[in-house]
Write a structure and sequence with these properties.
heterodimer, A: 141 residues, B: 80 residues, alpha+beta, three-stranded antiparallel β-sheet, 12% strand, globular
């Protein structure tokens, strides 16, 4: 359980570091008065993730203060059925993504070359990623 | 009554977890906490939706003070 406590503490540290980074970027954007759509979206997106990170930090801090909550969180994170579900979701998700993007790519070719090449790049990236992960885990397991 | 537990890539084994739990008068939550999984995992094993790993099967058997073979009946897969 000490290893898990260390893991939680390092996650809290990374979370705080991420929060400070977002604050720094927001300050820079505010000082330099950057208000274009892309920057606003990126900042909004980062703030959304920051809210999730803050919620997780609070959960970790609460677990570190109580042995019962710590054990509950440990079980929640190491439960083999949850891991199995995660693995199945990941594998199925990648296959469905490849199928959907491929179909969208074929249809988009009739309407927009830009969308077609974008979807082609995304599909090739996912296929490449899947192939690399298969090779990686085939060697590791 | 024994419930069937399907093994990935193979046949089925039966488990006596429900009977043992009732005999020891313990809840699914108590068993789950003792072996380090969620209550839902114990439920899934009992209702034959999930296959327990070898490690979890060992922990469950050890908790009841029995061998794996006494908790999980592999007779149906022996002939495969």
């Amino acid at each position: 359980m000490e290893d898990f406590k260390r893991k939680l503490r390092s996650r809290i540290t990374y979370g705080i570091a991420y929060g400070l980074l977002v604050l720094l970027v927001m300050c820079i954007a505010w000082i330099t008065e950057i208000e274009d759509h892309a920057t606003s979206f990126a900042l909004g997106f980062s703030c959304g993730i920051l809210l999730v990170v803050i919620a997780y930090i609070l959960k970790c801090r609460s677990a570190l203060k109580s042995e019962d909550k710590l054990r509950a969180l440990y079980i929640e994170e190491t439960d083999e059925r949850q891991k199995h579900i995660g693995e199945r979701v990941g594998a199925t998700g990648i296959n469905i993504s490849i199928a959907v993007f491929s179909l969208a790519m074929l249809i988009s070719n009739y309407y927009s070359p830009i969308v077609f090449f974008t979807l082609l790049a995304v599909t090739l990236f996912i296929v490449l990623l899947k192939s690399m992960l298969i090779l990686y885990y085939a060697k590791r397991i | 009554m024994q419930s069937a537990l399907c093994i990935a890539g193979g046949g089925c084994v039966r488990t006596k977890i429900v009977e043992l739990r009732k005999a020891h008068r313990i809840s699914q939550t108590e068993l789950a906490n003792a072996v380090g999984v969620t209550r839902q995992t114990i439920t899934s094993i009992e209702v034959e939706k999930y296959t327990a790993s070898l490690v979890l099967a060992y922990k469950i058997a050890k908790y009841f003070g029995k061998s794996i073979e006494e908790v999980f009946d592999f007779s149906e897969v022996e002939g495969e």
